[in-house]
Amino acid sequence: MQDRSVQNESALVCAARRGDKEALQVLLKRHWAWLKGLVYGVLGDWRDLDDVLQEVCLRVITRIHTVRDPDRFRGWLAIVARREALKHLRRKPLGSIRQGPESLSSGSYAEDPLEGMAKRELCDHILDAVKTLPEKYREVFVLAHTGELSYAEMAEVLGVPLTTMQIRLVRARRMIQNHIMGKRESQVQK
């Protein structure tokens, strides 16, 4: 017996393939958070995120009829998003500066100003560390932390065996931890 949400999603995909715009909109909204994470994982840059997501939406609208198996829509969507992000990177001039969104480092995190400052500093360190990851590690890390995909789905999206995806995730987390610990040690030595 299939899960109800999978059945519902399959029905939405079938309706979208027949031209139902509301079904397509529901599908995109349902997957938006992890899609955004996937595209950021490829780009490593927030500045171009909206442009690429618009391209992804356009591609989904014009190519939804190519989904062969409605039960595998999530994988199809991930492949479309990843290809659009990679296409964008190829068109981008070399040496572009990568930076995170200002809103992530300047938000209010706590009532206590010292606690808020510590959390902002940690958030900045994590964002810096994620930006320094090689693409294959950044992709898997961001995908894993959107919380929307299972490990099997992440492996499918990335086009690698499950064990390879798991190893990359462990390495990405280790690289981030080492980056953060290295920054903290250098700050203590000042």
Textual characterization of the structure:
With 190 residues, the protein is mainly alpha-helical. 76% of the residues lie in helices and 0% in strands. 28% of the residues are buried. The protein is elongated, with a radius of gyration of 19 Å. α2 (21-43) packs across α4 (73-91) and α4 crosses α8 (151-158). It has nine helices and no strands.
What is the fold's blueprint, element by element?
Elements: H1 4-17, H2 21-43, H3 49-63, H4 73-91, H5 102-106, H6 113-132, H7 135-146, H8 151-158, H9 162-189
Concise account of the structure shown:
The protein is mostly helical and 190 residues long. The protein folds into two domains: 88 residues, Rna Polymerase Sigma Factor, Chain: A, CATH 1.10.1740.10; 88 residues, Arc Repressor Mutant, subunit A. The chain has nine helices and no strands.
Can you tell me the CATH superfamily of the largest domain?
RNA polymerase sigma factor, region 2, helix turn helix motif
From the N-terminal CA to the C-terminal CA, the straight-line distance is: 61 Å
Helix-strand pattern: HHHHHHHHH
Helix content: over 70%
Count of helical regions: 9
Residues in β-strands, percent: under 5%
Our count of domains comes out at: 2
